[in-house]
Amino acid sequence: MKQRRLKIIAASAILLCGFAFLVLSMTKKESMPELSPAKLVANADKTDNQNVKLVGVILEESSTWDAANTKLTFAIREPEGSETVNVVYANLKPDNFTDGGNVFVEGMYDAEENLVVATKLTTKCASKYEGAESATTQKSS
Questions:
Q1: Which one of 28, 37, 47, 78 has the lowest number of neighbouring Cβ atoms within 10 Å?
Q2: Tell me, what's the pLDDT at 77?
Q3: What is the pLDDT of residues 74-83, one digit of tens each?
Q4: Contact 121/94 with Cβ under 8 angstroms?
Q5: Strand partners, 72
Q6: What pTM did the predictor assign?
Q7: Rounded CA gap, 118 and 73, in Å?
């Protein structure tokens, strides 16, 4: 009887530790702060070669789409400012991706090149409805 109780306690402890690990690893990923281009560049010493979440506006006439290589390049600017960061995204271009639109980008930042190699790109489209829709594409892992 005692041996069975010990097995149950050990199994419960293992499950609890596994659950705690999952929660902590998910929290760490989701706790990445959203940075504007100015904050990203200003903190380049801390953000270089780190995964970052960048929020801004797609710079007018900065985007190029290479359909043959599935490669989207563009620059993100401050909504109210001039600081920009270049972005390369090697996945499908969202349908509502337009110059001047709002964009959220996640990826690795290279401070020397002032470049984010994006793994996730979310665009927010203008909508006549109160809750604007958003389209998300994520690079397959």
A1: 28
A2: 93
A3: 999 988 888 9
A4: yes
A5: 65, 89
A6: 0.68
A7: 10
